[in-house]
Amino acid sequence: MLAALIVLLLVVRPCSAWESWGGDAGGSRFSPLRQITPDNVGQLVRAFEYHTGDLAARSPEVMRRTKFEATPLFVEDSLIFCTPFNEVIALDPGTGAQKWRYDPKIATNQRPANRYVCRGVTWWVDDQAPANAACRSRIFMGTNDVRLIALDARTGIPCADFGNSGEIKLDIGMPLDWPGEFQITSPPAAGRGVVVVGSAIGDNRRVDAPSGVVRAFDARTGEARWTFEPLNREGIEAGHANVWAPMSVDAARGLVFLPTSSSSPDFWGGKRPGNNEHANSVIALRIETGELVWAFQAVHHDVWDYDLAAQPTLARLDSGESLRDVVIQPTKQGFVFVLDRDTGKPVWPVEERAVPQGVAEGERLSPTQPFPTHVPALTPQTISPDDALSLLPGLRRSSCQRQFADARNEGLFTPPSVQGTLEFPFTGGGVNWGSAAFDPTGQILYANTSRAVHLVRLIPRAEAAGFNPPPGHDFGQQRGAPFAVSRAVVTSPFGFLCNKPPWGEMVAVDLKAGKILWRSTVGTTEDLAPLGVPLPWGTPLVNGLAVTAGGLVFTGAMDAYLRAFDARSGRELWQGRLPVPGVANPMTYLWKGEQYVAIGAGGHSEAGTSIGDSVVAFRLARPGEGPSLWSRTIDRPGGRFVAASTAIALAIIALVSAGLCWRRRRRIAPTRSRGGRDANARSHHAHY
């Protein structure tokens, strides 16, 4: 208990607001708020639901290319977030009333490679400016059409002294294949008067893809400060190694931490021999100069699209020997690397282990890959036909078992092949952009994980020109390589994932002990399966979570609920119905003495969910209020299915009963008619 208290006192005091995309600049996603607890979370009620208006104002075709992944900030007495179309909106935190709105008017005919998406904005305060000066408090945002925009956080008015009337158009340095090949999807990083921005680039289009250069600008003027090219291009032909995921900042040290992606193209690397430093790496730079301090590579010569999608989490950790400032990096493979923040050296041993070889023509793989030894993998890393889902157990060999058995499958890091290779975990994770959360008091890491399988098939160049990908298959030309690529999530004829559930889990890890504390399935098939069947199998969880000092973990999923779990046991305690799935990270804040929990609920087109345009917030019921009967029954997982099934069953019973009554009446009516005639006959005979 004393050790935990010491840790808490030594950790930089977290704010009761939510001032960065990850809760704080280090991405801990931890809040010290404790008003909402496991004992009273069942008393949460909806505080407000705000609609951006996109659903009504934009065409269904455009909305089908959106992903609402934004996490609001709570700054300047406002909730501030961005829409998939980079509109920035500020709301009253208690009522959800709109305070201001800024529209950068991005084109909606560019078909961005990663769809229309904006994960969040960044808040920065110029402490050199007078207290009431315009743009002393700023909001920075990168856009789908490659601009960096600065707004006054109090009014939403562009900062006239930044760039060209509040914006900078990034110079990509080469022609694009189409306007949407290059975009910015995650919030910039800001600190020490510098704002840093990454990029998201279309995958598997070509070998000579755009570079993943990271760019930094003066946060006051927009003047270019530095650029950093993550990929060592000497002796290779490649692009990318970009930073599309959120970055983290240690302002005290003056460091910015970059999670980099793979080199181009993703699934064949014959023209980029070697380990491809510093792709697939955590990189620490001096934020003021761009100077490289250290880099740690998590995947060598990546041909699996195992880029670092999660924000590096900065924490003070009890390693068992001392308290250390660390960087925690979860990966798509389900690994958790824990690195010293000053040196990048692993806190616990990382082993180079032999991995499968036997590659496609022209390929040269690394013979080994790094495996952390102390913290166990958050997800399974092998799959076999025995792990295939079978909805009809009587069948000798299901479709899923056949697909698993027919592909190349030698475990983690099995290389892509012409035969077709099973990739598990799939390219969505493990842990994806939702990242992890760290509770400094309990020294516990929490993460959402996905379990699904990809089938990756290399297509020889001679066959690629006429290749017609089946429905549900991504197809990449990989121009300049001898192979194109086809990739698909392995599913059954019924549309279910082919691997046995759970398909999405929340995992709690004691990092010091190197021990998984609990796993909890998150989500149902209610909003994905035919007829809304609510199978409790979990859903893939690319989104993240928030943990509080009140002992709760909040998360969305691919069904339309915000959920609360007991942080100590993993037991699911509460669900709040959303208009559509909240495939975004939740956040929490204190406003006028009340704790709120909010989430963006706009769905996710790549996941096949319904699409919306909402931000929804919950708070504890006030005196005289309380959860309604509807929210306790119908607005619960399975409630609609049970209600609909009951209504249908009652309707069928009513129809059957009516039919039986009608038939009975038909039988009785002729009898009565004949009985009347016989009585008349007897009466007539008696008179004569």
| Unreliable sequence segments | 1-14, 679-688
Shape: globular
Which structural class fits the helix and strand makeup? alpha+beta
Q: What is the residue-averaged pLDDT?
A: 93
How many strands, what sense, and barrel or not for the largest sheet? 5 strands, mixed
Describe the protein's topology.
Blueprint: H1 2-10, E1 30-31, E2 44-51, H2 54-57, H3 60-63, E3 66-67, E4 73-75, E5 78-82, E6 88-91, E7 98-102, E8 116-117, E9 122-125, E10 137-142, E11 147-152, E12 167-169, E13 182-183, E14 189-191, E15 194-197, E16 200-201, E17 214-218, E18 224-228, E19 248-250, E20 255-259, E21 281-286, E22 292-297, E23 313-318, E24 323-330, E25 336-340, E26 350-354, E27 368-372, H4 399-406, E28 421-423, E29 436-439, E30 444-450, E31 454-460, H5 461-464, E32 474-476, E33 483-489, E34 504-510, E35 515-521, E36 545-548, E37 552-555, E38 561-566, E39 572-577, E40 587-591, E41 594-601, E42 614-620, H6 629-633, H7 639-687
Parallel strand pairs: 1-36, 3-8
Antiparallel strand pairs: 2-42, 4-5, 5-6, 6-7, 9-10, 10-11, 11-12, 13-16, 14-15, 15-17, 17-18, 19-20, 20-21, 21-22, 23-24, 24-25, 26-27, 28-31, 29-30, 30-34, 31-33, 32-33, 34-35, 36-37, 37-38, 38-39, 40-41, 41-42
Your description of this structure?
By secondary structure, the chain is of the alpha+beta class. It is 12% helix and 30% strand. The strands form twelve sheets. It has a five-stranded mixed beta sheet with strand order 1-36-37-38-39, with no helix packed on it. The protein has a four-stranded antiparallel beta sheet with strand order 2-42-41-40, with no helix packed on it. It has a four-stranded antiparallel beta sheet with strand order 4-5-6-7, with no helix packed on it. β37 and β38 (561-566) form a beta hairpin. Mean pLDDT is 93; it is low at 1-14 and 679-688.
